[in-house]
């Protein structure tokens, strides 16, 4: 007689909702995002002072209606992801600050963020979404490609823009 033990993984549930980028959870996530992208770029741990300066240098004030939106993703209630969308022009929105905590990567958080951010872009009147990212952010580039974003010629310039993507929403 053979016995089998069944091993089930609990189902994880993401909720992604608009939230002001100034709330405690949103601020903590924006700081974590900046710490990771700056740390990877500089190849070292980033100081709290550098995070403070980075948030001042790259403000999120466009991520509020009617020009944009910020969202927080929660995995079983814990805030572990965030992202923003802002209008570049009346028909073009741009993704920014897309971040999933390392502990939650591979659980569908990136897909959940994109779904809600694309819906927010449509609500703002956009028919396409663009973004720029860096070469070293390989997880982000793979996420965008998996969800229908195609590389396009540069539409912006900046020290951290090395790849540009676009997705039509219509």
Walk me through this protein's architecture:
- Pfam families: Acetyltransf_1 (PF00583).
- InterPro entries: Acyl_CoA_acyltransferase (IPR016181), Bact_Acetyltransf (IPR050832), GNAT_dom (IPR000182).
- Keywords: Acyltransferase, Transferase.
- This is GNAT family N-acetyltransferase.
- It comes from Streptomyces virginiae (Streptomyces cinnamonensis).
- This protein has a domain of 117 residues: Gcn5-related N-acetyltransferase (GNAT) (Aminopeptidase, 3-Layer(aba) Sandwich), CATH 3.40.630.
- The longest helix is centred in the N-terminal third of the chain and has 19 residues.
- The chain has four helices and seven strands, in the order βααβββαβαββ.
- It has a seven-stranded mixed sheet, with helices on both faces.
- It is of the alpha+beta class and 170 residues long.
- Helix 1 crosses helix 2.
- The termini are far apart.
Shape: globular
Distance between the termini: 58 Å
- Portion of residues in helices? 25-40%
Instruction: Briefly note the CATH topology name of the domain at 14-130.
Output: Aminopeptidase
CATH homologous superfamily identity of the domain at 14-130: Gcn5-related N-acetyltransferase (GNAT)
Please give the CATH architecture of the domain at 14-130. 3-Layer(aba) Sandwich
CATH class call of the domain at 14-130:
Alpha Beta
Q: Based on DSSP secondary structure assignment, what is the total number of beta strands?
A: 7
Number of helices: 4
Q: Write down the Rg.
A: 17 Å
Rounded mean pLDDT is: 92
Q: How are the strands of the biggest sheet laid out side by side? A: 1-2-3-4-5-7-6
Report the portion of residues in β strands: 25-35%
Main β-sheet, in a few words? 7 strands, mixed
Compressed to H and E, one letter per element, the order equals EHHEEEHEHEE
Poorly predicted regions are: 1-9
SS content category: alpha+beta
Domain N-acetyltransferase: 16-170
Keywords: Acyltransferase, Transferase
Protein name: GNAT family N-acetyltransferase
């Amino acid at each position: 007689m053979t016995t089998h033990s069944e091993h089930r993984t609990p189902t994880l549930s993401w909720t992604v909702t608009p939230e002001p980028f100034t709330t405690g959870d949103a601020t903590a996530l924006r700081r974590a995002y900046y710490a990771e992208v700056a740390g990877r770029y500089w190849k070292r741990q980033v100081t709290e002072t550098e995070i403070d300066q980075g948030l001042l240098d790259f403000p999120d004030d466009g991520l509020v209606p009617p020009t944009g939106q910020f969202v927080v993703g929660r995995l079983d209630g814990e805030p572990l992801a965030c992202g923003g969308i802002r209008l570049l022009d009346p028909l073009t929105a741009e993704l920014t600050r897309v971040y999933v905590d390392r502990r939650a990567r591979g659980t569908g958080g990136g897909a959940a963020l994109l779904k809600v951010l694309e819906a927010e872009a449509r609500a703002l009147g956009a028919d396409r979404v663009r973004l720029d990212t860096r070469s070293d952010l390989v997880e982000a580039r793979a996420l965008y490609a998996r969800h229908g974003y195609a590389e396009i010629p540069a539409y912006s310039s900046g020290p951290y823009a090395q790849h540009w993507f676009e997705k039509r929403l219509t």
